[in-house]
Amino acid sequence: MKCPFCGKPNTSVIDSRPGKIEFEVRRRRECQECTQRFTTYERFVKVPIIIVKKDGRREDFNREKVLTGIKKACEKRAISIDRIEETVDAIEQDLRETNNRELSSKIVGEKIIEALKQIDDVAYVRFASVYREFKDVTDFIQELKGLVPKECLPLEFDRILDKADDRS
Predict the structure, then answer these.
(1) Pairing state between β 58-60 and 11-18
(2) What gap in Å lies between CA 145 and CA 131, rounded to an integer?
(3) Ranges of residues in the chain whose predicted pLDDT is under 50
(4) Helix, strand, or coil here: 103?
(5) Which residues of 49-75 are buried (b: 16+ CB within 10 A; e: fewer)?
(6) CB count in 10 Å sphere of residue 29
(7) pTM score above 0.90
(8) pLDDT for the residue numbered 73
(9) 102-125 as b/e, with b when 16 or more CB fall inside 10 Å?
(10) What is the pLDDT of residue 107?
(11) Residue 43 has what pLDDT?
(12) Cα angle at 92 between 87 and 96, to 5 degrees?
């Protein structure tokens, strides 16, 4: 590190401690040439994750978009904002751990769906209905069949699905 006073590269660290914000280190340095002291801050910079959309467009991963989508799915459910924030943190961490700079939006959507499935069935179905573009009630019933044991489902579900199959 060059000294900001004399420009010489011969400096040493005399003190190092965590900074005021996360992922920051504050360092006191001293120039070996002019003996001036100065402070530097080091910050961790996250490498952006690029999301490849269905139509091929690319955009930076947007944590706020994920948070908004999950909040909407969890609306009027007994799920704390802390739990939602933790979920978004976990999803972002999972995405970073893939070590891929570019990820399909499908991967992000499926990660959200899997996380919501662990938290709340209603929030999960709400999100899935939008993300998977449910067309009618039969799509909801198909999704519910995967959540509820067969013996707990009303017999009408099978009749509705049979009618939908006949229309196809």
Answers:
(1) unpaired
(2) 18
(3) none
(4) strand
(5) bebbeeeeeeeebeeeebbebbeebbe
(6) 19
(7) no
(8) 96
(9) ebebeebbebbbebbbebbeebbb
(10) 96
(11) 85
(12) 145
Instruction: State the pLDDT at residue 21.
Output: 75
Please calculate the CA angle 14-16-17 and round it to the nearest 5 degrees. 150
- Tokens 């069935």 map to which residue? 121
- CA 42/CA 91 separation, integer angstroms: 26
CA angle centred on 44, ends 41 and 49, rounded to 5°: 150
Residues 6+ apart with CB under 8 A from 21: 43
Structure tokens at 152: 């707990």
Residue the block writes with tokens 């909040």: 71
In this predicted structure, what is the pLDDT of residue 114?
Answer: 95
One-character DSSP codes across the chain: ---TTT--S-EEEEEEEE-SSTTEEEEEEEETTT--EEEEEEE--PPPPEEE-TTS-EEE--HHHHHHHHHHHTTTSS--HHHHHHHHHHHHHHHHHTT-SEEEHHHHHHHHHHHHHHH-HHHHHHHHHHHTT--SHHHHHHHHHHHS-GGGS-HHHHHHHHHHHHH-
Residue with tokens 């769906």: 113
The per-residue pLDDT for 77 is: 96
Cβ atoms of residues 119 and 91 within 8 Å: no
